[in-house]
């Protein structure tokens, strides 16, 4: 016999609500994936060059850098934070890698130096946010300007080339089975690791808890300060990896690299279902969002759409994704 008590009714109601909310999130992720499929089909008919192997490889390379950055910023956004510094940080990490290798360090040491510089700057962002109680928007906006200036100072505004170590470019220009570029392999390997941490580890559960209700998480024993330090450090480290990959792909470190990349990475996370209000997001969704951004940009290029209109379209896509997320949040709030 079913429970007839008020407690039983309450439990059933809570279960029904949880199922509805879970279904809404799944629907959003499925909708993003279907949007990607529709974009691919549309551009396949709109341009005869879209579905060529060469163009698909180009899309993969474009997605690799943005996707890895987006996975890092997904962690930050889930905690209801933001990281606007990653575009500038992408340039800084490439420059640090080039300076280290140019000074005679082995390639492995140069790669580690680049990745660790990203982690260090991310840790600084997290420290100011967690201990200084400064809004993440302000901290990372300031670091965006600081990082860009630092990249220009270190290079005197000029690109640094890896002429003495041509092997460095093999990190990004080697192809698996003569088809799949290594950066695409990196993208999926990193996605598996980032997804596992977020969904299968205690720290992943704490990240969601902090984003859902920071005060409740603190009262439950979660060390909110450590979680914030971790997510900003992770975002910096992922951007460091992306910076190394981009430098290897271009065979140079460009101090102007990464401009507007922070917007693309954040957009990829939001389009993939990560809520700017915190508490929700998946690495799978972010991957889908990153591919949507790359396919849309690539397809518009093939159709001859000007860069100016591309910016307009990209901006409208992001606004639409945030608007849909806001409506869903409002419905959930009413349902509760």
Model description:
The chain has 336 residues and is mainly α. The chain has one domain: ABC transporter involved in vitamin B12 uptake, BtuC (Orthogonal Bundle). 76% of the residues lie in helices and 2% in strands. The protein contains 13 helices and four strands. Strands 1-4 form a two-stranded antiparallel ribbon. A two-stranded antiparallel ribbon has the order 2-3. α3 runs parallel beside α5. The radius of gyration is 21 Å and the shape is globular. The two termini are 27 Å apart. The relative contact order is 0.18. About 3% of the residues have low confidence.
Give a quick precis of the structure.
With 336 residues, the chain is mainly alpha-helical. Helices cover 76% and strands 2% of the residues.
Strand content: under 5%
- Please state the CA-atom Rg, rounded to the nearest Å: 21 Å
Spell the H/E element sequence.
HHHHHEHEEHHHHEHHH
**Reported CATH architecture:** Orthogonal Bundle
Topology overview:
Layout: H1 6-46, H2 53-78, H3 86-102, H4 107-132, H5 136-155, E1 160-161, H6 170-173, E2 175-176, E3 180-181, H7 182-200, H8 202-212, H9 214-219, H10 224-250, E4 252-253, H11 261-271, H12 283-302, H13 307-335
Antiparallel strand pairs: 1-4, 2-3
Helix pairs in contact: 1-12, 2-7, 2-10, 2-11, 2-12, 3-4, 3-5, 3-10, 4-5, 4-10, 7-8, 8-10, 11-12
């Amino acid at each position: 016999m079913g429970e007839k008590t008020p407690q039983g009714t309450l439990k059933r109601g809570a279960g029904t609500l949880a199922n509805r909310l879970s279904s809404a999130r799944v629907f959003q992720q499925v909708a993003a994936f279907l949007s990607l499929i529709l974009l691919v089909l549309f551009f396949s008919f709109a341009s005869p060059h879209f579905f060529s192997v060469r163009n698909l490889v180009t899309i993969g390379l474009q997605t690799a850098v943005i996707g890895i950055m987006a996975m890092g910023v997904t962690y930050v956004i889930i905690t209801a934070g933001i990281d606007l510094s990653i575009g500038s940080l992408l340039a800084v990490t490439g420059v640090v890698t080039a300076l280290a290798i140019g000074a005679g360090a082995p390639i492995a040491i140069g790669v580690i130096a680049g990745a660790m510089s990203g982690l260090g700057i991310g840790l600084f962002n997290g420290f100011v946010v967690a201990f200084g109680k400064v809004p993440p928007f302000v901290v990372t906006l300031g670091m965006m300007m600081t990082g860009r200036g630092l990249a220009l100072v270190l290079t005197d505004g000029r690109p640094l080339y890896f002429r003495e170590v041509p092997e460095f470019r093999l990190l990004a220009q080697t192809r698996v089975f003569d088809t799949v570029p290594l950066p695409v392999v990196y993208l999926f390997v990193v996605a598996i690791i980032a997804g596992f941490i977020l969904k299968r580890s205690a720290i992943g559960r704490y990240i969601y808890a902090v984003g859902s209700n920071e005060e409740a998480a603190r009262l439950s024993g979660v060390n909110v300060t450590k979680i914030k330090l971790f997510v900003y450090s992770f975002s910096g480290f992922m951007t460091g990896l992306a910076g190394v990959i981009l430098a290897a792909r271009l065979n140079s470190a460009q101090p102007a690299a990464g401009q507007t990349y922070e917007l693309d990475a954040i957009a990829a996370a939001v389009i993939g279902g990560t809520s700017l209000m915190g508490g929700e997001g998946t690495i799978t969704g972010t991957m889908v969002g990153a591919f949507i951004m790359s396919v849309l940009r690539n397809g518009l290029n093939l159709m001859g759409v000007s860069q100016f209109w591309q910016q307009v379209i990209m901006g409208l896509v992001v606004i639409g994704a945030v608007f849909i997320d806001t409506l869903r949040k409002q419905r959930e709030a009413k349902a509760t």
